[in-house]
């Protein structure tokens, strides 16, 4: 039996950060994954998704500029777009393996399972460890209704070699919003069944309302307040049934109904690691409350929002706590979040309703601004913002943007929140003109 200072289960963002930091301090480290190395973001999430968004953005730009100096229709060749995506994703696992080898980190392939509080079995071997980090990410929530076996996951969607004509998305959050914008611009007829009463419930309702114009223009059929309850195989494909809704025929049904920590294969009972409501019970140092040798990071820990920068942050926090003893707590202030629709919608800090619920005193500024130069030069009809600035301190409490460059500009608001910059600091910054960021002064 081999003994390591640290065993990390997973090979995604959280695993990469924690393993590299602990190894750099001279400790022995092993990582493991049952899928090709690289994790969700690089192989099945953010990065491949955004390569497909690049194609959809091009179509959108050409469409917007029709009659403004651009003529001729462009179209997406789906197989070529997928091949383009693979130029990025295909080399990732090998690069990751080489990087682990170069760092002197041992890499194992296979499902890892605890065999005791300080032991893990993988590839038929048992590894003992002074510390174990659970960085197993998240998986789609199981959907249990008749015909659920016909649903494909986001992993499969991002690998499709051809795009079917009729697509149904179950759920109305990030994945549904992003995939529907890609698929519609690639020529598919898309229907979204959303259980909640609107799309993108984690984003500001006013801004989502402005963005819905784009869904309508694209012909995306969004059906709020509808929970899918059955899928039927017919002679012509699939028939998707939802509460109180007419059934919709589809060639492909995609899971976009949320994700949860991926813990089932771990045998957490053997690890003496407790779980409550499908989540690990962790203390403020991301350490198991029942087994102090075990920490968790990223989507598996589920302490911060399930986003890549949070996984990296958790990885840094856990590395410090392993190397120096529990001394660092995660800090999730000012985590920006973007849904990469076209145009994107972005948010950081408190929403209006959260700020009101906390009883904070703040000045709110919100405007629908398709008449601003940033939108006009792109012939984009969707552009608007909402900002919350605390009275007295002048601190930015929250910022919400929909429209061109929202995905980049939101980072400056995130910077302001994390570093306690004031609205006046933002107004008096010198920002290159004309850029999306040069609108910030007018937003606060
Ligand atoms: C379609 C999609 C798009 C996304 N887009 C964005 C985006 O644009 N921006 C953003 O910030 N976030 C995005 N996310 C979320 C982001 O990808 C995740 O938050 C992030 O990748 C989580 O990283 P992690 O290290 O915590 O886990 P992961 O990267 O998921 O790594 C966990 C790894 O553990 C492995 N594993 C699980 N169980 C075991 C076991 N028992 N034994 C061995 N290995 C195991 C898994 O195979 C997996 O590779 C997206 C997610 C999806 C699904
Ligand atoms: N750009 C990004 O940062 C990005 C992109 C994609 C995914 N992600 C991450 O991945 C996670 C998963 O994404 P997601 O879009 O699957 O989840 P989500 O939590 O964003 O949205 C899921 C939605 O599905 C709905 N829903 C659940 N069950 C349903 C059912 N049976 N019928 C109809 N609707 C149902 C819910 O109302 C909810 O709004 C997100 O939480 C996010 O953190 C991030």
From TrEMBL:
<dbReference type="Pfam" id="PF02852">
    <property type="entry name" value="Pyr_redox_dim"/>
</dbReference>
<feature type="binding site">
    <location>
        <position position="50"/>
    </location>
    <ligand>
        <name>FAD</name>
    </ligand>
</feature>
<dbReference type="InterPro" id="IPR004099">
    <property type="entry name" value="Pyr_nucl-diS_OxRdtase_dimer"/>
</dbReference>
<feature type="binding site">
    <location>
        <position position="258"/>
    </location>
    <ligand>
        <name>NAD(+)</name>
    </ligand>
</feature>
<keyword id="KW-0520">NAD</keyword>
<feature type="binding site">
    <location>
        <begin position="171"/>
        <end position="178"/>
    </location>
    <ligand>
        <name>NAD(+)</name>
    </ligand>
</feature>
<keyword id="KW-0285">Flavoprotein</keyword>
<dbReference type="InterPro" id="IPR001100">
    <property type="entry name" value="Pyr_nuc-diS_OxRdtase"/>
</dbReference>
<keyword id="KW-0274">FAD</keyword>
<dbReference type="GO" id="GO:0016491">
    <property type="term" value="F:oxidoreductase activity"/>
</dbReference>
<protein>
    <submittedName>
        <fullName>NAD(P)/FAD-dependent oxidoreductase</fullName>
    </submittedName>
</protein>
<comment type="similarity">
    <text>Belongs to the class-I pyridine nucleotide-disulfide oxidoreductase family.</text>
</comment>
<dbReference type="InterPro" id="IPR036188">
    <property type="entry name" value="FAD/NAD-bd_sf"/>
</dbReference>
<feature type="binding site">
    <location>
        <position position="299"/>
    </location>
    <ligand>
        <name>FAD</name>
    </ligand>
</feature>
<feature type="domain" description="Pyridine nucleotide-disulphide oxidoreductase dimerisation">
    <location>
        <begin position="335"/>
        <end position="439"/>
    </location>
</feature>
<feature type="domain" description="FAD/NAD(P)-binding">
    <location>
        <begin position="4"/>
        <end position="315"/>
    </location>
</feature>
<dbReference type="InterPro" id="IPR023753">
    <property type="entry name" value="FAD/NAD-binding_dom"/>
</dbReference>
<dbReference type="GO" id="GO:0000166">
    <property type="term" value="F:nucleotide binding"/>
</dbReference>
<dbReference type="InterPro" id="IPR016156">
    <property type="entry name" value="FAD/NAD-linked_Rdtase_dimer_sf"/>
</dbReference>
<feature type="disulfide bond" description="Redox-active">
    <location>
        <begin position="41"/>
        <end position="46"/>
    </location>
</feature>
<dbReference type="Pfam" id="PF07992">
    <property type="entry name" value="Pyr_redox_2"/>
</dbReference>
<keyword id="KW-0547">Nucleotide-binding</keyword>
């Amino acid at each position: 039996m081999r003994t390591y200072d640290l065993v990390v289960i997973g090979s995604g963002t959280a695993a990469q950060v924690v393993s590299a930091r602990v190894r750099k301090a001279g400790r022995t480290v092993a990582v493991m994954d049952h899928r090709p190395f690289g994790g969700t973001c690089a192989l099945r999430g953010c990065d491949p998704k955004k390569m497909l968004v690049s194609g959809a953005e091009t179509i959108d730009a050409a469409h917007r500029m029709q009659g403004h100096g651009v003529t001729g229709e462009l179209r997406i060749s789906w197989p070529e777009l997928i091949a383009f995506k693979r130029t990025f994703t295909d080399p990732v696992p090998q690069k990751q393996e080489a990087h682990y080898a170069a760092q002197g980190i041992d890499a194992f392939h296979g499902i890892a399972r605890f065999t005791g509080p300080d032991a893990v079995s993988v590839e038929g071997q048992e590894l003992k460890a002074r510390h174990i980090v659970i960085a197993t990410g998240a998986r789609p929530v199981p959907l249990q209704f008749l015909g659920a076996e016909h649903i494909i996951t986001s992993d499969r969607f991002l690998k499709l070699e051809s795009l079917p004509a009729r697509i149904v998305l179950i759920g109305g959050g990030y994945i549904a919003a992003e995939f529907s914008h890609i698929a519609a611009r690639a020529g598919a007829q898309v229907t979204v069944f959303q259980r909640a009463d609107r799309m993108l419930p984690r984003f500001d309702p006013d801004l989502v309302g402005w963005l819905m114009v784009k869904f309508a223009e694209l012909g995306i059929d969004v059906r709020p307040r509808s929970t899918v309850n059955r899928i039927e195989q017919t002679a012509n494909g699939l028939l998707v049934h939802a509460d109180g809704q007419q059934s919709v025929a589809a060639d492909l049904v995609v899971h976009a109904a949320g994700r949860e920590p991926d813990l089932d294969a771990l045998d957490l009972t053997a690890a003496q690691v407790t779980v409550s409501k499908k989540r690990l019970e962790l203390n403020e140092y991301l350490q198991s409350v029942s087994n102090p040798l075990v920490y968790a990071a990223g989507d598996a820990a589920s302490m911060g929002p399930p986003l890549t920068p949070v996984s990296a942050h958790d990885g840094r926090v856990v590395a410090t706590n392993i190397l120096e003893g529990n001394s660092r707590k995660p800090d999730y202030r000012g985590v920006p979040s973007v849904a990469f629709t076209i145009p994107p919608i972005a948010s950081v800090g408190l929403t209006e309703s959260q700020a009101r619920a906390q009883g904070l005193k703040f000045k709110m500024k919100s405007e629908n601004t398709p008449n601003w130069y940033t939108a006009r030069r792109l012939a984009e009809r969707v552009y608007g913002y909402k900002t919350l600035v605390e009275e007295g301190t002048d601190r930015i409490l929250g910022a919400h943007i929909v429209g061109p460059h929202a995905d980049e500009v939101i980072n400056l608001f995130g910077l302001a929140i994390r570093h306690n910059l004031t609205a006046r600091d933002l107004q008096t910054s010198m920002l290159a003109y004309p850029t999306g960021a040069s609108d910030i002064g007018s937003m606060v």
